[in-house]
Amino acid sequence: MAASGSSVSLKLLIDKKTQKVIFAEAEKPFVDFLFHLMSLPLGTVIKLVSQKGAMVGSLGNLYSSIKNISQTYLQPNLNRDVLLNPKIATPSFNVPLLLAAGGGASQAKKFYVCTGSNGYACGRRSISEDPKAICPNCRSYISSEASYVAPVKADCSSRDNESGGGFVKGVVTYMVTDDLKVMTQSTISTITIMNDFNIKDFGSVEEKDVRVGVDEGLKLLKAALHTDSVLTAVFLGE
Ligand SMILES: [Zn+2]
User: How far is the CA of 88 from the centre of ligand 1 (A)?
Assistant: First the structure.
């Protein structure tokens, strides 16, 4: 399995009798995608899952309320985008961009440092996200723009994603269960899961290769919020 463009492939093992996914065999890019979901702010999740179709639960109503409340009642310095379109905490650009459609808002964060005032070099090295913040040491604005430099990541494209980038290492194959338990693949874990499904022989299972792109990524996120048969729901159209 390899990542190609913005989609990754996945091998499903399906119980023929119940037409349920027993587990999926997955490589690094898919596991990275799943782990990446945890770094999404709630506002981003609600925005993503409500793009197509109905809002999820009451959080969708909360989201619309923030969108619709008149500016008159909001604090003057509040930009409602902080809540509706929050910045993603871990802009891990090496994770397959399954959520490219609207996951955005990853514009570079600005920082400001205190450089003192009136020829007085401040020794405090105060830093702020707001150029109107006042340095507690020299009482001048912390207004000198600094540029954030992300740490240099090892180039992983040439080494098959085995180091650097994403969250997990690419050296093993992972197993993802229907309810999104993620583990490294081993004979023991395979047998354990097969037993849980009461699978006695391999004749009662079938394999299916599927691709996960932006659409499936969104469906996965949505399904993960309301079912414990996520893979079945997304790929077998439960
Ligand atoms: Zn200062």
Answer: 30
Q: What tokens appear for 234 in the block?
A: 């997304």
User: Which residues have a Cβ under 8 Å from the Cβ of 143 and sit 6 or more positions away?
Assistant: 112, 131, 132
Q: How far is the CA of 127 from the centre of ligand 1 (A)?
A: 9
Q: Ligand 1 being an ion, which residues bring their Cβ within 5 A of it? A: 114, 122, 124, 135, 137-138
Phi, psi dihedral angles at 74 (to 5 degrees): -95, 150
Helices marked H in 120-213 — which ranges?
187-196
- Between CA 142 and CA 114 the distance in angstroms is 4
pLDDT tens by residue, the chain, 238 residues: 444 457 889 999 999 999 999 999 999 989 988 998 888 888 888 888 887 666 667 888 898 899 999 988 988 878 888 888 887 665 554 555 555 544 444 455 678 888 887 777 787 788 888 888 888 888 888 988 887 776 665 544 444 444 567 888 888 999 999 999 999 999 999 999 999 988 888 889 999 999 998 889 888 998 998 899 999 999 998 5
pTM, 2 dp = 0.71
